[in-house]
Structures are given as structure tokens and as C-alpha cells.
Amino acid sequence: MSSIRRNFSTTARALLEFIWKGTGSNSKYEDRIKAKLAKNPKLVDADKVEIAGDEHSSPADPKPRVSGQVFKDNRRLTSLHAYHDGTIIYSKDSINKAQED
């Protein structure tokens, strides 16, 4: 299985790398995640997002989503679920509370 890597940069922050493991990249999810990270003071300095697998749902959570992790200097900051509707839920409640919309 190969990984797909995509990089994004802005003048406001450092390079953000997206790694898609076991699936092809999806620019809509990348754009949504990038926008949310830029509006979260606890994640604004993240340098890598790793997405594992294809968009999926489950009986417990039927909304389509991708699952991944957010890193800074190879240290995991949080996990995330990014939903097709634009919602992003982080595994750490303190990061969810810090999110500015």
C-alpha cells in the first residue's frame, strides 16, 4: 500500500503536510481540515495530518467521515473525525473547546 502526500502553505503558517494512508487524497476534506486547524489556537502550529483509510460510516455513527491524526514535530496532538458536512471532532475535549468557527 502506498501513501499519498500533499503539502499546503500559507503566509500565515508553516507548511502543513497531508498523508493519506490506504486511500487516495480528497481535496475537499483537506481544505476543511486545513481551515479548521487554522482557527484552533491549540492546533494552528500543526505540521502534519495523517488520514487512515477511505471515507466511512458505522451503525453507531452513520454520517460519512474520515479518521486521522494531527501532529507537530512528529508528536501526536490529537485524533480527529472529519465529516462530509464540514464538522470536525477531535479526540481531546480541550481541543474541541478551543475551536473557533
Amino-to-carboxy terminus distance:
35 Å
User: How many domain units?
Assistant: 1
Q: Tell me roughly what share of residues is in helical segments.
A: 10-25%
Tell me the strand order in the biggest sheet. Answer: 1-2-3-4-5-6
- Total beta strands: 6
Structural class: alpha+beta
Give an account of the 3D structure.
The protein is α+β, with helices and mostly antiparallel strands and 101 residues long. The protein has one domain. 18% of the residues lie in helices and 41% in strands. The protein has 2 helices and 6 strands. The chain has helices spanning 27-38, 93-98, and strands at 3-8, 16-21, 48-56, 65-72, 75-83, 88-90. It has a 6-stranded mixed β-sheet with strand order 1-2-3-4-5-6. Strand 4 (65-72) and strand 5 (75-83) form a beta hairpin. The chain is globular. Mean pLDDT is 89; it is low at 8-13.
Q: Helices, strands, pairings?
A:
Blueprint: E1 3-8, E2 16-21, H1 27-38, E3 48-56, E4 65-72, E5 75-83, E6 88-90, H2 93-98
Parallel strand pairs: 2-3
Antiparallel strand pairs: 1-2, 3-4, 4-5, 5-6
